[in-house]
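Now read these lines:
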Amino acid sequence: MKQLFTLAALIFSIHCFCQAPNPELFRTWYLYEYYSTDDNIHYPVSAVTPAVSPHVTFTEALDFNGQGACNFFTGSYTSPYNDLVLFENFSATLLLCSSQSQMDMEGAFFSMLQSGGQYTITGQGGNMRLHIETPIFTNFVFGNTALGSPDFDLNRTVIYPNPVTSQLSVDSGNNAIDKVEIINSLGQTVKTASSGFNAIIVSDLASGIYLVKIQAEGKTVLKKVVKE
């Protein structure tokens, strides 16, 4: 709540304190995932089917453009402080997405693009991250490299069978896995494996939807699995 009041105060003072944003913001950012700090349930873009590559490009002219799951958008933004971005004049095409998961992701993404929030930029080179936290405590994580690029081969990791009953296997191709965590719908880590990734026992888990967090070579990818 304190963050919400702080952001509201910053919004009211926009005309007095407007300044140039962090110059690192001026590039194309690809959405990787979003989550709420209330339940910590993560929604990775890599889990959306059919596959999409939502992204936004910020320019020095204080406008932005990009693509959601199936619609293009444009708009403008302001930066009252160099760690705050507020979006204005958002408009988008009105095409229908081909799946519910695409619509859900695009709806969340577009809601952020019509509000804004506090942001941080970390990393360098092809491993930069943009993190935006909105006033309703929904967080959006972006990177400056598209998920389908060679730098993100880990996203081609396969988990099987899915749905799973007793034993889960993780195949990451040429990536050497460091750790696998299984996270329940409450955001709790219910199982961790640091070896034996081709035979992770899940028979003791309750039926439901879980996220499989895979870490390899300093990178992380999230996959969704259904436990029957």
